[in-house]
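Practice record 12: protein with magnesium ion.
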Amino acid sequence: MVDKISSLNKTFHNKKGVFFDMDGVLYDSMGYHAEAWSSAFSHFGIDFPPVMVYHNEGRTASATINLVFQENVQRNATDVEVEQIYSRKTEIISEYPDAIPFKSAKSLMENLKKQGFAIWVVTGSSQDKFLEALLRDFKGLISSDRIITGKDVTHGKPHPEPYLRALDKSGLKADQVVVIENAPLGIQSAKAAGIYTVAVNTGILDDHFLWEAGADVVIDDLKDLELEFN
Ligand code: MG
């Protein structure tokens, strides 16, 4: 059994940057995404329960839609189908209240910033509404040139490309960085890029899915990482 406290105390040792995932790490937003994806698919007669959204979190929208089509009708979705389902999902989620940033994420980021860490966000999302909110809610902590979105990559998570892109743009080496992720596919992506990965389980999946994806440590709340700064 991993000694959680001692491994957390070494998390940021000799590191220079922290790459944060967005949904489920910075924002308590996954419940909205799960409901919105599930009802968008059901609008087109396809069953995709909320728990499956958590298992597939991190994929780009088109990859998610194609995967669900492959499972249900054994083919990829057409461009028109991708557009229709994604528009429906976007429409549904825009009716929900704005997602609330996790207090512990903001406080951790403030501490990291004070200590001189480079802070990046690596998300599969490409919706302007959320990216604008990110810059507003984490003002002074996150800048627009330090965000990798779904639009910046050919292959979304679980492919390593999003995290490799962040390494490349930041000029940091894999062993100088910590990734903070909440989703199995995001963890796989970061680990495939060779980066130490903290999983924060803010969702409905059991911890073992995060360990199996390769997480180096699994915690319940980002405030556990503040141990290092006290
Ligand atoms: Mg996430």
